[in-house]
Every structure is written in C-alpha cells, then in structure tokens.
Design brief:
The chain is mainly alpha-helical. It contains 16 helices and 5 strands. The strands form 2 sheets. Strands 1-2-3 form a 3-stranded antiparallel beta sheet. A two-stranded antiparallel ribbon has the order 4-5.
C-alpha cells in the first residue's frame, strides 16, 4: 500500500513519474505547490509546513496563525529541539497528525482548551477511528506540554481523558508460528525475514536494511525509531536460516532486482508471505517483535534483559511482558496445586466411618 500522505498532499502521475504536491482546494482550481518527492525527508517536512502557511520558502514557521492559537502552537513546536531531534520518518508521522489538527482546529485559542471541548470537537468525531483518536490525543498532549512550558497554559486540560483503545498489534501464537514455518521452509527469503524479525525483534524499517556485517557473529543494529543501539547473540534458529541464505548483496533481504526494499514494499512482501501461510490479518509482521518479547518472558528473562534485546527506552513495555508471563505461569501453577490438593485430600465422610460413634461422643455418654 502507498505511504499515507499528510492532509492536502496529492500524488500526480505524469509520464510514468509520480510527483507530490500540496493543494488545499482540490478540484476547485486552488494553487498546486510542488513538494519534494520523498515524504520522509526533512526537505519535504519544511516545504509542507511552508505550504500550509501559504509561503513558498522552506521554513516551517507559519505567520498567518493568530497569536496563542493552536496553529501558532504547532508552528512553535516545530522549532523545538524535541521535534528537530526526531528521525525523518517520525517527523513525517508527527506532521501528518499535527497538520490535521491545525487544519481543523488551528484557529482555536490554546487558552480555550478544556476537557469537554477536547472530547467534543477533537475526539468524538473520531469515535469510529480509534487509532486516529489515540494518535490525536498523544500529539495534543505533546502540544499541551509545550504550551505549559511557554506559559500559554497553567494546567493540562486533557487530564482525566481516557486514551481511546485502538487495535493493538498482538504477538503470534505458537500455532501461527508453526503454520508460517511449514509454508516457508529454511532457505526461502520469507523464512529468513521471519527468522530475523522473530529472533532479533527488528521492526520492518530495521529489518529491510540489515546487512550481513550486522548479523555476523553478533546481531547488532540501531533502532531507527529511537536511535537505541541493540546488541545480542545470534539465536540458533536464526543462524540456521542465515546459513541457508545466499550472500549476494550487502543487505540480507533484497528485492528480485537486488536492491533493499522500501518500507512499504517490505510490508507488502511480508503481508503476501503471511497470507500465503493461511494466517489471519491479525498476524502482522510487527507482531513477531512482540512474540520475541513474549518468548523471552516465558523463558524467565528479566525485564532489563528484554528491554536491552528489544531496544526499549523504558522498562514499562518490557515489564508488561514479564507480568503477563508471571500471570500465565501463576495460573498454571495454581491448577497444578489444585490437582495435588484434590488428590491428597481425605474425604470428609469416609465410608468406613459411617454408622460409628465418634470417640468424643462415647466419652460423653459414659
């Protein structure tokens, strides 16, 4: 599937080449502003922000927003180190949501934000899109924190708003893992990709660019999302898959033309492999990363070990795996103890004692 573009950005296909352009009044004769071809680049982010502000230069500052408005707050946030330190891919994702907020609510005053207005005007219209609602409240809270730092707000008006529950990507079951392995034996590109994601916990953006140098001896890479360096031993299952994979290029996984996959191309490749294995849509490539966390927790790994292996920046996510593993182990241990208790427990009214008078009763009669 093509990468989702920010609001008002359209693809134009001319003589076999695709161009990106900004057009806020599509179909109504509005001006079309040409944008850089790579939507994940800094040049695209700057040009897009400039186009939104009605300017042609590539500065993300927007001057048409009213003072202390949500639009002005977004423009100010673009200038912060927090935003500038994001990866290019993350910047594009942030801008997609922030510009959607700007288009719909940029005219509103930051000081006028209340819990009720956030729910009524921003979240309730997204009730049928829980993923979009969740991303909106996440980005809005980033803006609110920035507003508090600037003195535009004294408190957080989003306090008390529950995070919308989206469809969380789940870990694969053991049966689903076995089904994929039956369909794609060792030696196939699909099995090698699967082995990388399952044994290294790499996301799609990291898996597609892994080189042989990174997986030889030790599995070393830097997470694209967080910039955290990860180093772990090569698991036996991964070693078997790599040993059966031809080394024709620098990168491990490549297209039929010998080039690394794009992020979207890699997603399509894995989706086709998963579908061919007869697995449901709930089995997503990123779920293999979560499966590794589950397997590590079941094996008794500590939260710190899981955190290091998956490249998490905090213990919170890793601790979730260990808590779930403890819950599963606790439930199994409880049933074992219950069975042992039932097997060892003497009947309260054994048959051999029926009709007999208890010793205490006999003493009383005397």
């Amino acid at each position: 599937m093509p990468r989702k573009l920010p609001p008002h950005v359209e693809r134009n296909h001319v003589k076999g080449k695709t161009y990106l352009s900004f057009r806020i009044r599509k179909g109504s004769g509005g001006p079309r502003i040409r944008l850089p071809d790579d939507p994940t680049s800094q040049e695209f982010c700057d040009a897009y922000a400039a186009a939104v502000g009605g300017k042609t230069e590539t500065k993300p500052t927007v001057t048409k927003d009213a003072p202390c408005s949500i639009g002005a707050l977004i423009a100010s946030y673009y200038q912060t180190g927090q935003f500038k330190r994001l990866s290019e891919t993350s910047k594009a994702g942030y801008m997609s949501r922030l510009e959607d907020i700007r288009v719909k609510h940029g005219h509103r005053s930051v000081a006028g934000l209340t819990k009720d207005r956030i729910n009524t005007f921003m979240l309730d219209p997204l009730a049928d899109r829980p993923g979009a609602a969740l991303d909106t409240i996440k980005k809005l809270r980033i803006l609110i924190k920035h507003a508090i730092d600037k003195g535009w707000l004294k408190h957080d008006p989003s306090v008390g708003i529950k995070r919308p529950k989206g469809k969380e990507i789940r870990a694969w079951t053991d049966a689903e893992l076995a089904a994929f392995e039956r369909r794609w034996p060792i030696g196939t590109k699909q099995r090698t990709t699967y082995a990388l994601m399952l044994n290294m916990g790499t996301a799609r953006v990291d898996t597609r660019s892994l080189t042989w140098h990174q997986v030889d001896a030790d599995a070393r890479y830097t997470r694209h999302k967080t910039g955290v360096a990860v180093e772990m031993a090569v698991a036996d299952d991964l070693q078997k898959a790599l040993a059966a994979t031809p080394r024709k290029h620098i990168t491990v996984i490549n297209t039929e033309y010998g080039k690394p996959y794009t992020v979207d191309g890699f997603s399509r490749f894995m989706r086709d492999a998963i579908s061919a294995a007869g697995l449901p849509l709930g089995c997503q490539p990123h779920g293999l990363r979560k499966t590794l966390g589950r397997l590590m927790a079941d094996a008794g790994c500590t939260a710190h070990e899981i955190m290091a292996s998956l490249g998490h920046t905090t213990l919170a996510e890793a601790e979730r795996y260990t808590r779930e593993a403890d819950r599963r182990r606790g439930g199994k241990r409880a049933v074992v103890k219950l069975n042992e208790h039932r097997a060892n427990k003497l009947s309260q009214t054994a048959s051999e004692s029926l009709g007999k008078i208890a010793k205490t009763e006999r003493k009383t009669e005397r």
